[in-house]
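Consortium newsletter contribution from the modelling node. Members have asked for a concrete example of what our holo predictions look like. Here is one, prepared for the pantoate complex that several groups have been discussing at recent meetings.
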Amino acid sequence: MKIVKSIKKIQQSLEKERLKGKSIGFVPTMGALHQGHLSLIRRARKDNKLVVVSIFVNPAQFGPKEDFKKYPRSLKKDALLCKKCGVDFIFYPDAKAMYPKGYKTYVSVEALSDCLCGKSRPGHFKGVATVVAKLFNIIGPCTAYFGQKDAQQAVIIKKMAEDLNMSLKIKVLPTVRETDGLALSSRNVYLNKEERKDAAVLYRALNLARDLIGRGQKNSRKIITAISRMVNYKKTAKIDYVYIVDLENLIPVKVVKGRVLVALAVKFGRTRLIDNVIIESVKLKTQSAKLKLKV
Ligand code: PAF
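And here is the predicted structure:
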């Protein structure tokens, strides 16, 4: 496994590999790798001849009052994990190389970037789309892998790739969770004991939505109220948003029909966590009907 800092060098190395006909699987990350990232890396390893992981804490996607400075950085540990998972290259650029003096070009995926997390994190998805577009150009992957936990990010990146005619596949893999349901996130390390315990409510709340929809509840407002009540019950929790939206445009739906995304963002103390589930209302209804019949 090679760790490469220089943009030119990684481009040259990967060009050689491409000429040998090797397919490149790419996992962009900000480091502080956990099992969620590793599930993406393992899948990339399975699907491709060559695996590249980027580690870059992208300043462009953090707001001025956000956690850019304290975001966990652990290159040594990350490199060990990557090596164990059979990664071929870690691309580890610095901010000066990615955004040199006089840098001017940004990618903005309109409408999709202003809702949900975009509302409380203005500019965040412009930063994400820009860095991901740059990384795609530098690495030139056949397939790039993202986690479903960042559902809005995945929708935005897919749209960007489609709109800009990028010739790669985007694969979105399921969220990896702790045993109590908390979605793995590099930010979980910020939580104190009480906040960590309370944070398990996120997945319970999403499961409540699943249950309600499964039992035939279609009124989004009622589902959102029930979820919010459950989350608000936790002392350290402060809701940023709870939305039920369609999967393509991320527009709130009043009536749950077909596939919807139930997404929430909640602050536990000073740590903002997000989570989501995709729920297919029709399927769940028939499933619960079958269950009733069995009983
Ligand atoms: O999901 C992340 O870790 C980041 O947003 C990404 C996609 C690596 C871009 O910086």
